[in-house]
Amino acid sequence: MNKASINHITSCQNSRNTMSLATISLLLLFFSASISANEKPSAYEELQNYDFPIGILPKGVTGYELNTKTGEFSAYFNGSCRFMLSSYELNYKPVIKGVISKGILRKLSGVSVKVVLIWLNIVDVRRKGENLQFSVGITSANFPIRSFVECPSCECGLDFIHEDERKFRQKLHVSSS
C-alpha cells in the first residue's frame, strides 16, 4: 500500500468519525429538545403565563389540567387547604376548577372565603393593575399583588398570617399592655 492510499484511508476514517460525532450530536440535540418540549410547566408557571402571581395557589398542587383553547382548568391537592389572607380565612377543596384567561379567573369552584361566620364561594378573580380583586358575586375585595409573591402553606393552617397583619397585631398587643 502506498502513502497516498494510506492518507486516503485515514482521511475517510476521520471524516466518518466527524460525521458520526455530528450525527450523534444532532440526535442528542433533537431528543433533548423533544423531551423539554414534552415537559409541561407547573401550575404555578401557568398562572404567571396568564399574568397572575404564583401565590394565588397554595403550596402542594399535585397536578393540573388546562385546555389552552377554552381556558378551562382543574388543579388538584392531596386534601383541603385552609390559610389566612389578611383577615380572611380561605379554603381550597381538593379539586378547584374554573376558566382562566389573561388577568381573569372566572367560573371558579372549590375556593371559598369565610366572611364573619359564613363561607362564600369565590367565583371570580381579576387582576386590576397591581391588585387582585376577589369576587363572591355580591361583593368583592382588593388585595395588593405583593401579598401573593409566595405561595401560602396549607400545613400552616390558621397560623399563617400575612406580614402586614402580624405587624398590626403586634401593635395592638403592645398598645393594650
TrEMBL record:
A Pfam family reported for this protein in Swiss-Prot or TrEMBL: DUF538
Domain of life: Eukaryota
Span of the signal peptide: 1-37
Keywords from the named record: Signal
InterPro entries in the cross-refs: At5g01610-like, DUF538
Descriptive protein name: DUF538 domain-containing protein
